[in-house]
Amino acid sequence: MRGWGQRGRRMGPFSSPFKWPVRQMWAPPEKQPDAFSHWPLGNGRWREPSRRLCGCCSRKSSSFWETSSMKAWADDVKRFQKMFRHPGHVQLKVVVGNHDIGFHYQMNRYRIKRFEKVFNPERLFSWKGINFVMVNSVALEGDGCNICSEAEAELMDISHKLNCSREEQRPGQCGHGPPLPASAPVLLQHFPLYRQSDANCSGEDSAPPEEKGIPFKERYDVLSREASQKLLWWLRPRLILSGHTHSGCEVLHGAGVPELSVPSFSWRNRNNPSFVMGSMTPTEYALAKCYLPLEDTVLMTYCAAAGLLVVLMLVHLGLVASPVLFGYKLLRKFKTV
């Protein structure tokens, strides 16, 4: 059993809308660690030690990267580790996103190394006969920059290893290290593959109706057509899991390769945060969406509790008659009559 979620993001220190401080007070993302730590695989019902995330752990403000400091990064990492705390037997795999290293024009080696030092992401790994490929989708700009060229070369090498594992080869012909399982990989990345918009997306976790028809911008909202085709050709995945858009969507690419965009796991980004639970074998998989309580429900609960507390305080101070005592007197009066 595995879980996927698009990581929660925190407010940046710049120009935050008024409603965000209100949410920070009443329904902050820090209240969400219990939802993560009580996933079925983490509470003893399931002992499958694996969880994976497709998202950004850092602040939401786009200008954050222009003034980022070591302390701000350390604070974000500390918050992330608190929000996604997990038992020691559970593996946590983190996919890099644009709020971790910036968009392409903000990305540099320092930010990449800073991320890798904390999360140590593996590009290719296998678990119980299942191959997983974690892609730095920010580096798939296709402009020939050094980081982009290195990322594509690494993907080509991974492609060779995966293709070699599917064919009968003599020992040593597939490179160094143990041979990979002969299984089509599961692709994990932050940016979705290219699609025009969310117009064909459905479900309660999809984008609002007024946003579905807005065209996506290549290399900003989704990967470019070219980068998307390269990933499909090189890796030949059987399933793609992505994030970034904050909304859920299921898409079929090419010859029927499914992609699931995982919604945001944060009340700040949507009213109904969710994550995805998955059960996988080398040849099959099953996915299910799990929802947190609606933010409206959480706020109404807080308001009701606050109202009850005010009434109890007024009763204690004698400013309002106790409802129990009032009801008792009314009942006695009724019996007397």
Automatic annotation (TrEMBL):
<keyword id="KW-0378">Hydrolase</keyword>
<feature type="transmembrane region" description="Helical">
    <location>
        <begin position="299"/>
        <end position="326"/>
    </location>
</feature>
<dbReference type="InterPro" id="IPR033308">
    <property type="entry name" value="PGAP5/Cdc1/Ted1"/>
</dbReference>
<keyword id="KW-0479">Metal-binding</keyword>
<protein>
    <submittedName>
        <fullName>Metallophosphoesterase 1</fullName>
    </submittedName>
</protein>
<keyword id="KW-0464">Manganese</keyword>
<dbReference type="InterPro" id="IPR029052">
    <property type="entry name" value="Metallo-depent_PP-like"/>
</dbReference>
<dbReference type="GO" id="GO:0016192">
    <property type="term" value="P:vesicle-mediated transport"/>
</dbReference>
<dbReference type="GO" id="GO:0033116">
    <property type="term" value="C:endoplasmic reticulum-Golgi intermediate compartment membrane"/>
</dbReference>
<dbReference type="GO" id="GO:0006506">
    <property type="term" value="P:GPI anchor biosynthetic process"/>
</dbReference>
<keyword id="KW-0472">Membrane</keyword>
<dbReference type="GO" id="GO:0016787">
    <property type="term" value="F:hydrolase activity"/>
</dbReference>
<keyword id="KW-0812">Transmembrane</keyword>
<keyword id="KW-1133">Transmembrane helix</keyword>
<dbReference type="GO" id="GO:0046872">
    <property type="term" value="F:metal ion binding"/>
</dbReference>
